[in-house]
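Exercise 7. Given the components listed, write out the predicted structure of the assembled complex. Treat all entries as one system.
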Amino acid sequence: MSDQQKLHSFVLYVENQPGVLNRVASLFRRRAYNIESLTVGHTERPGISRMTIVAGISEGAAHRVEANLYKLAPVLSVEDVTHVPIIARSLAFIKVAANDESRYRLMEIARVFRARVVDLANESLVIEITGTEDKVDALVGVLRPFGIQEMARTGQVVMSRGTKPPANGHPAGRSDLLLEEEASQSV
Amino acid sequence: MPKTKKSGAEIIWECLERLGVEYVFGYPGGAILPAYDAMTRYGVHHVLVRHEQGATHMADGYARASGRVGVALATSGPGATNMVTGIATAMMDSSPIVCITGQVGSKLIGSDAFQETDITGITLPITKHNYLVTRAQDVAPSLREAFQIASSSRPGPVLVDITKDAQNGSCEFDWEAAAPQRQHFVRGPFYNKTQLAEALELINQAKRPVILAGHGIILSGSEQEVLAFAEAACTPVALTLLGIGAFPASHPLCLGMMGMHGEAWVNKAIQESDLLIALGMRFDDRVTGNLKTYAPTAKKIHIEIDRAEINKNVHVDVPLIGDLRELLPQLVPGVKRMDRSDWLSSIDKSKQDSAVRDIQSLPDDGHLYAAHVIHELWRETNGDAIIVTDVGQHQMWEAQYYRHEKPRTLITSGGLGTMGFALPAAIGAKFANPKAEVWVVAGDGGFQMTMAELATIVQEKIEIKIAIVNNGYLGMVRQWQEFFYDGRYSSTPLWSPNFQKLAEAFGIPGFTVNTRPDVIPTLRAARRQRGPALIDFQVEQEDSVFPMVPAGADLHAMIRRPNPLVERATDV
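Answer.
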C-alpha cells in the first residue's frame, strides 16, 4: 500500500447465485487492487448474501469501486463503511505448540485475551479468538514465541452501529465523489 | 393465458420475435444446432456472416443505426471466442447488443469437451451482464432480462450462453411469467433541486462556456433538448468523436470535434473556457490530453447517466446523474438569455489561418488526398448518408471533413478503436435502415481484417458502397512512427491485393481512383449502381492527420499542419 492508500471496508448485499463472487472480485482484480479480506454469508433474507470486503486503496479508488459495484446486476447494495461507526470482528483458530511446561502459560494468555482453548493435545493446543483485527494480531504476537503451527483467520465481518438500516436501496445523489488521485493516461 | 410446452430452442425464437427482433446475425455450429433447427419455424431473418466477429459488429452497427437492440448468434468454443472483440467494442461504446451462444451440454461443462470454452468467464469484464443458462425454463427469463439490461440506463452488451441440453429440453412456456424481475440495476437518477440550482448559477454566471457533447446525447435521443439548451444558453458546442451527429454541424454554435485530432480552435476554446458543460461524455484521454493542464480555469458541470463516470478523470463541480432527456428541460427555463457574442467571436478569430493550412484549399498538384475524397463524398451524398468508418487516419479525416447534421449517421468504433469494424457494422446499419445510403469508409489495413464479409453483402443482396482510403500503410501507426519514432516505419508498409479485382471476384463492381478529377465521376458511378460498389482510392501515402495533440500532451499544444506543405503544393 502506498501512502495515499488505506484500508477500506465495503459491505455488499448480493444475490446468492453462481458467479457473483467472481463478478465482485473481478472489479478489484481489474484494477490490480489487493483484497485483504473477504467474507460472505447468508443474511436474514433468503437468497441474499452479505459480503464484507476489505481492500487497501485510495479514497478516490474506493469511490470508483463503489460506483462500479453498483453496476453489477446481482449487487443489491454497496456501502463503504470506512468512515462510519462500525463494529468489526474476525475469528481465528491458532494452533500453538505446547508441552507440560508451557501449557498453563498458554491457557493463562488465552484467558487474558478472553479467548478459548477449544482443542488440547499432547504437543499442541488450539485457541479460538474473536475480536478486532488488532486484538487477534496482538494475540498472535504473544503466541508466536511458543511456536504457531497453524492458523486460520476468517477475515472481518462488520456492521454499522445504531439503528440505521443497511443501505439496500438507492444512495442519495452525492456530490462528494472524489477524483482519483492519479488518473492514468493511456497512450 | 394458456401455457404451451416448447423446447428451449423454440423459446429462444419465441422470445426474440416477441421482443421485436427482425434480424439476427450469426453463424451455426454444433452446440447451437438446436436453435438453428428451431429457427426455420420462426420469422426472424437470419444473416449468415463469414466470421463471428462480423456478427457482433453487425449487431452493433444495427444497434447504433437504429437505437434498438442488435442480436448476434454463435456456437460454443471458437464461435463464442470470435465474438470477444465485437463485445468489447460494444462495451466501450455503450452499444446495446445481445449475444447468444451455444454451450456444450451442462453435464459436460468443465470437462474440456469438444468446443467447450468458459465464455461467461471470458466475457465477464466486457459485458454489462452475462448468463449461463442450463435449463429450458431459464431461457425466457434470461433473454427478457438480457434485453432489458442491454438497453436500459447506459446501454451495453449482454451475453446469454445456453447449453445444448437447455435448448433440447422442453418446458411450459409462459411469456408473462418470464418478465424481468430485477429492477434494482436501473439506478438513479441521482440529483436534486439544489444541484440543479447550482448548475444554473454556474451557467448564468459563465462568460466563456463550452458544451461538450458526447455519445450519451444520441443514446438517450436528446438531440432536440441539447439544441434547445445550447440556444437558450447561447453556448458553443464541441463534439466528441461519438458525439458527432448529436448537434448539427451547420449550426452556428457548432464548433466541431474536440480532442487529439479536433480542430485547434475547438481545443483552444475548451482550454480558455470558464465553464464546461459535459453532456453524456466521459472525459476520455483522447479528448482531454494532459489532465493536469486540462481546462484549468473552467468549472465543470457533468450530466451523465453512469454514476461511475463522475469524477473519474476530471474533477466535477456539479454532477447531475440522470437521463439528459429528462434533465435538460429542467434547466432550460432557468437559463438567462445572455449575449455571449464576444466569446463566440473570439473563438471565431482563433481560427486564424486554419483555412489556409487546410488540405482542402490545396490546389490540385497531382496528388490525391483523403481529405478531398471525404469532402467530395460529403458533397455528393448531400451529407445524408450513413457513414460507417473503420479505425485510423481515414476515421479522423471522416470526422473532420464529413459534416454530419443528424444523429446515428456516423457509426465508428471510438473507445476500443477496433480495426475491421466498418464493413460488418455497415451491414448491420443497412439492415436497420434499408432505405438509407450506407457508405463504408475504411483504410486498406482495417478493410483487410474483415473483408470476408463482402460475401455476406452479396448473399444478402444489400446495397452498401465502400470507399477504401488506400495509402499503402497502416497510416495512423506510420504517422506516430514519423512523429515519435524518428520515422522508423516498423511493419507499417502494407501490401494489398487489387481491391477492384477483389470486389469483382465477389461480383461487386469495383473502381480505382488515383487522381483528384476522377473522384467525383467515380463516386457518381458507384452511387448509380443498384447494388454494392467498391472504390479503391489510392491516396497520398505519407499524409498525416492534422492537427494533432500527442498522447498525454497539453490540449492546447497541437501539432499543426505544416505550412510548407501548402507552399510546396502551390509551387507545382
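Discussion: The domain at 6-84 of chain A is CATH 3.30.70.260 (Alpha-Beta Plaits). Helices of chain A lie at 20-30, 59-69, 103-112, 133-143.
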